[in-house]
Amino acid sequence: MSMNFEEIKASISTEAAQVSDAQQLEAFRIKYLGKKGVIQDIYASLAQAPNEEKRTIGKAANEIKQLATRVMEELKTRVGSAGGGKARRSIDPTIPGVAPRVGYKHLLTQTIEEISDIFEKLGFVIEDGPEVETEFNNFTALNIPENHPSRDGFDTFYTTARNPEDQSSHLLLRSHTSPGQIRIMQNNKPPLAVIIPGRVYRPDAVDASHSFMFHQIEGLLVDKDVKFSDLKGLLNAFCKRLFGNDIQMRFRPHYFPFTEPSAEVDISWRGGKRDWLEIMGCGMVHPKVFEYAGYPKGKYTGLAFGLGVERMTMLKYGIKDIRLFYENDQRFLEQF
Ligand code: DAH
């Protein structure tokens, strides 16, 4: 019997490459490793072989058997074995695993948490307010007059839904987090110290520094005898913790309808170019706001502040375009 062992080896490899399911795998096994298979034939041929060839044939038969067995094992992992009815993949525990990618928090969430954390350590409680608000909470109760431009449809998103408690006004997407102040005061008695982080909406055209949706953090502290110096001390402590001890701060007089007096806070990096950057608005709660919230006249004083999360984050990390926060580009997000 003449057999070309090299040809058999080659056909094992080519045929193995074509095996794609358990049935073909079984056919492959029968053909090479079965009782009447090619390898058995080679062993059987040993009996008739001349003595001087027995060694060579035996060696070749062993090699081919090893090859076919190894290929079978590989195929079993690839297509699953036919045994046990259902095809089953065997698991090789020695193969290194694919580690799942661990998620992480969005940079804005990180900043909100960092700021919230600072205020929590200063004794503030984190509260929440709804994004769909009444005109009363968003404007009237904050002493924002009827004819104020921020009430205009160009500056506020109004919904078609009417306020169930006041059919003459429509619900709107809150244009700032300040209406949260009203809700807190309507439901809690002083002393209170809260911060209210959340989304706000304004129909602004989107560009590098504007977005129709962004995040603010509102702060409110009400008690007896709260003074402007408390506001300064508090915001000073906060800014140093967030931006580092190296900054300088100034309070610049400003106007907000819901605080009196009002100020804007600017910071600058000592040793830098001395540019002042506006970071937040603040002031002492206007007596009218207490009145709308239902507090007795003259009993309490309070401080309030509001800051833009995107703005703070852009300043802190040197980000030049607000749109980067919302585009979900991994190359940007992964950096933080
Ligand atoms: N609501 C103001 C805005 O969106 C920010 C603000 C300023 C909030 C002063 C305050 C404050 O509580 O006291 O522009």
Would you list the SSEs in sequence order as H and E?
HHHHHEEHEEHEEHEEEHEHH
What general form does the structure show? elongated
Report the CATH superfamily of the largest domain.
Bira Bifunctional Protein, Domain 2
CATH class of the largest domain: Alpha Beta
| Span of the ends, CA to CA | 73 Å
Number of strands: 10
Kindly state the percentage of residues in helix. 25-40%
- The averaged pLDDT comes out at 92
Summed up, what is this model?
With 336 residues, this protein is an alpha+beta fold. 39% of the residues lie in helices and 23% in strands.
Observed structural traits:
2 domains, 11 helices, BirA Bifunctional Protein, domain 2, 7-stranded mixed β-sheet, binds 3,4-dihydroxyphenylalanine, elongated, 3-stranded antiparallel β-sheet, alpha+beta, 336 residues
Written account of the structure:
The chain has 336 residues and is an alpha+beta fold. The chain has two domains: 5-82; 107-333, BirA Bifunctional Protein, domain 2 (2-Layer Sandwich). Helices cover 39% and strands 23% of the residues. It is built from eleven helices and ten strands. It has helices spanning 5-18, 22-33, 38-48, 51-79, 107-121, 135-138, 179-187, 228-243, 287-293, 309-317, 330-333; strands spanning 125-126, 132-133, 158-163, 166-173, 192-201, 213-223, 247-256, 259-269, 277-285, 301-308. The strands form two sheets. It has a seven-stranded mixed sheet with strand order 1-5-6-10-9-8-7, with helices on both faces. The chain has a three-stranded antiparallel sheet with strand order 2-4-3. The chain is elongated, with a radius of gyration of 38 Å. The two termini are 73 Å apart. It binds 3,4-dihydroxyphenylalanine.
